[in-house]
Design brief:
Helix content: 55-70%
Number of helices: 4
Structural class: mainly alpha
Largest sheet: none
Radius of gyration: 12 Å
């Protein structure tokens, strides 16, 4: 993994945490982690997590409710 790939993964993990745990919208999370383009954020997020940001956040919240993951696991990707 290159340094750029690592940084992207960390930023997208933080965005996921913000959407799931803090309740940020995808746009708020994207801005908070430094994305200037919502479409670029969505494309990168989908590539890493396999789902669009809002869909993934909803899925992760369901997994938390079922006890499959914890909030501390959220940003780990």
């Amino acid at each position: 993994m290159t340094p750029v790939q690592y940084l992207r993964r960390v930023r997208l993990g933080e965005a996921r945490h913000r959407m799931v745990v803090l309740g940020d919208s995808a746009a708020q999370a994207a801005t908070a982690v430094g994305y200037k383009s919502a479409s670029h954020f969505s494309r990168d997020y989908h590539a890493l997590h396999g789902r669009p940001p809002a869909t993934d956040a909803q899925w992760v919240r369901q997994q938390i409710a079922l006890g499959e993951v914890t909030t501390s696991d959220v940003a780990l990707g």
